[in-house]
């Protein structure tokens, strides 16, 4: 979004006439209201906080000088928190996670089959799965203590949301007190949404008042809930469906369906279209039934959510990264539209990948304005012969990034040329190449900039990754700040983050004097940086941004090696064919590609230098305890032979959840072998090394499940 030009607040004329002051006051009021609208209703700020505050101060100064300007409409007369204070943050005790997506019947069948396989359920064993609409609103967590609503928070990034308690209290449908005897602590989660009728009426009112209209009911609901003035939220009819929970001191039921019935019993609104199904066929039938009613429901839905009904099974299934294995969202088909492709911009990512992004003539697809879309990669552009200037078909499905499907050839302008993908990095000018796989001889689909060290785009993206939420998670060091600090030469590599304060002390040009900063924000930033000097090892590894090392693989490495020094020592010597290389390859869940990426990273002199500097500033701590109190935490376990009470996948997931490392083969480093019937060479090897060997039943007893 383009930044609208903000009129600079003029110097306060001591004796400005009332007429002039009135005109300025009116102009400022309109401008501040427009910024409020962008920030709170559309979640797209158009000016910096400092600029906004200056406008606000000037507005208040005029009123102080000319009290006649204060009317009931004045922005200073609105109840609630001052807009510049924004919302307080709320850390979710239980993260608010997202759902995986499926789009086709086959994928739904696959979801059910996967659940069965994981649990080791034969085809004839019953498996109940619920199906319910996926509401297109915004999720919200309501905390009840002894039945009373004490806090409401938005999802935010899933770990931290915003405190919207005052606003949620204005939603008539949400009880301030639950009925009957709910658990003493009960966080109920669900979707806040706006109906089509209320959305249309709100937009009519907005238009009549000369205010901007909302693009769709979801934006309207989000804008209304994130109003700093609860009086405004109260005028915007919002609704709520409860469908999940977070922290709970006890659970009133042992099934998903039972929990939703309990919500209803406590007086919370629940969606009437939730049913219990017993097969993929059942799920698909309900999906079709909901799809048929979609247009007449009166509120937006974007798919159907399937959840394994039994909470005990949900527990066994657990999570993969940030989505539950026990649930998925079956999205409605994507919506399509045609528009003009104005340009193809090449973005350079953290690993040097050149990604083509389509710049489009903005167009509304399914209620959302789309002006950028993905073109996937070089081969896709060539295969579809997509050219700049073409009219293209774009597609948008739910919250997936819109994509360009292909050109409308009849509308192709004369004299257009096939697109030539750049062979040099548009940021640093280094050669951009497609690596050839040594084994297959096939070129990688991704073209990468070879300028690693000198490429500013890669450096900046690496820094952003380093400070990001799942890595070092440094509050106040977001993408925008990193870009500025890099641009000004203050932070070029990760260790620079930790020396920033010391350098600032010596510098004449202090950080606190920069635009957008002040004493407090600088103090907070330094404190946030300091607080991360003892980051958990898994985050440290993830933060390095090594190829193929995402959050999950970082945890695997942290669990296996226990310390950064141990990982580094092995990875440094992990040349092809070495023992070190095979140690990494053998870590459960990893393999050759990861081992190679690690060897490459640690084989790079520059990375070693940066790491040495970083380790002077930061001390990685033992991995974030998933369950450090568990008797198997930190142990290396090998499962061999047949398991009778659970599948191999489940055993592995469970052991990892308890902090154990699961290895595929027995070595001297193995602590424990769990052997079932039919165990062969691994058992023999365990005996040879004198490693403790136990049965599946003993294992379950050991971890407290037996
Ligand atoms: S269950 C552990 N049920 O979809 C996951 N989510 O893509 C718990 N949503 O953030 C979520 N309707 O905002 C669930 N019936 C429903 C839903 C639903 C809408 C949203 C929710 C969530 C997102 C995940």
Question: Can you describe this structure?
Answer:
The protein is built from 24 helices and 24 strands. It is an alpha+beta fold and 706 residues long. Strands 2-13-10-3-9 form a five-stranded mixed β-sheet. A five-stranded antiparallel β-sheet has the order 16-15-14-17-18. Strands 5-4-7-8 form a four-stranded antiparallel β-sheet. Among the domains are: 89-321, DNA ligase/mRNA capping enzyme (D-amino Acid Aminotransferase, Chain A, domain 1); 474-530, no CATH class; 537-615, DNA polymerase, domain 1; 636-702, 3-Layer(aba) Sandwich (Rossmann fold). The N and C termini lie far apart (57 Å). Residues 1-15 and 79-85 have low confidence and may be disordered. The longest helix has 24 residues, at 18-41. The site of 2-(butylsulfanyl)adenosine (IVH) has 15 residues, from strand 3, strand 8 and strand 13.
In short:
The chain is of the alpha+beta class and 706 residues long. It is built from 24 helices and 24 strands.
Q: What keyword list fits this structure?
A:
D-amino Acid Aminotransferase, Chain A, domain 1, alpha+beta, binds 2-(butylsulfanyl)adenosine, 706 residues, 5-stranded antiparallel beta sheet, single chain, DNA polymerase, domain 1, disordered N terminus
